[in-house]
Amino acid sequence: MHTKKDIVTFQDIQVLVNSFYDKVQKDELLAPIFNNVIQNHWSEHLEKMYRFWETVLLDANTYFGAPFLPHANLPVRCSTNILSIG
Ligand code: HEM
Fold first, then answer.
1. Looking at ligand 1, which residue's alpha carbon is closest to its atom 38?
2. Among the atoms of ligand 1, which is closest to the Cα of residue 45?
3. Exposure of 69 by Cβ count < 10 A (0-12 exposed, 13-18 middle, 19+ buried)?
4. What is the residue extent of each domain of the chain?
5. pLDDT in tens, 9-21
6. Cβ distance 62 to 51 under 8 Å?
7. 31 lines ligand 1 (CB under 6 A)
8. Which of 38, 19, 34, 33 is nearest to 86 (CA)?
9. N or C: at which end does the chain have fewer Cβ atoms within 10 angstroms?
10. What percent of the chain has pLDDT over 90?
């Protein structure tokens, strides 16, 4: 049986973020939304997301961005489809 362990290190954060975005890339609804904006800047985006989650989950204070604006004009509206990722 696979035992889940808690997220306690930066490497754990990378596993979390990388596996989330692997799923995004396979999702026909979400993949184009991300790829249209991020294009060939994935390494910068992933780096930002590591810092964001490291700050949220490990109190690391390494993320200083402003997440609202990059999302405000995305072509995403409330939809039950969005909940089906996974
Ligand atoms: C359908 C849901 C979502 C979509 C399509 C989406 C998409 C995006 C896109 C396209 C960007 C900009 C990337 C770039 O310009 O390089 C971004 C940035 C970001 N997103 Fe999301 N996002 C979603 C949900 C979330 C959620 C739920 C969170 C957090 C709980 C989140 C946190 C962030 C953060 C921290 C950034 C970086 C902002 C910055 O500092 O520039 N996003 N997202």
1. 67
2. 16
3. exposed
4. 10-84
5. 999 999 999 999 9
6. yes
7. no
8. 19
9. N
10. 78
Global confidence as pTM: 0.86
Distance (Å) from CA 6 to ligand 1 centroid? 23
Each residue of 27-51: pLDDT tens digit? 999 999 999 999 999 999 999 999 9
Does 33 sit in the ligand 1 pocket, CB within 6 Å? yes
Question: Does 58 sit in the ligand 1 pocket, CB within 6 Å?
Answer: no
Does 32 contact ligand 1 (Cβ within 6 A)?
A: no
Report the pLDDT value the prediction gives residue 76, as an integer from 0 to 100.
79
Is the four-CA dihedral 80, 19, 49, 5 of positive or negative sign? positive
